[in-house]
Design a protein that fits this description.
Radius of gyration: 16 Å
Largest sheet: 3 strands, antiparallel
Shape: elongated
Number of domains: 1
Organism: Neobacillus notoginsengisoli
Protein name: DUF1659 domain-containing protein
Helix content: 10-25%
Order of helices and strands: EEHE
Length: 72
C-alpha cells in the first residue's frame, strides 16, 4: 500500500497593497519556507498575525502549502 509522507510545508501571507487603475485590489505575497510540519492552524494564525502587525499593508489571506512524497 502506498503512503504519503509530508516532505515540505510553506506559509504564504497575502497583503492588500492598494488598488489598480480600475479600482480592483492589488495584492503582494510573502512566502515562508521550511514551516514546521507539526505546526497547527492556531500556531500558523498566531505567526501570521504577529508578522502582519509589523507590516503597513493589511493582511488579506493566509495559506499553507504542503508537498508530500508518495512511497509505494
Amino acid at each position: 500500500m502506498a503512503q504519503a509522507l509530508l516532505a515540505e510545508s510553506r506559509l504564504r501571507l497575502s497583503f492588500e497593497t492598494g488598488v489598480d487603475e480600475k479600482g480592483k485590489p492589488v495584492y503582494k505575497s510573502k512566502t515562508f519556507n521550511n514551516l514546521k510540519k507539526e505546526a497547527t492552524p492556531d500556531q500558523m494564525h498566531q505567526a501570521a498575525s504577529a508578522i502582519a502587525a509589523l507590516c503597513k499593508d493589511p493582511l488579506s489571506t493566509v495559506e499553507r502549502t504542503d508537498r508530500s512524497e508518495i512511497l509505494g
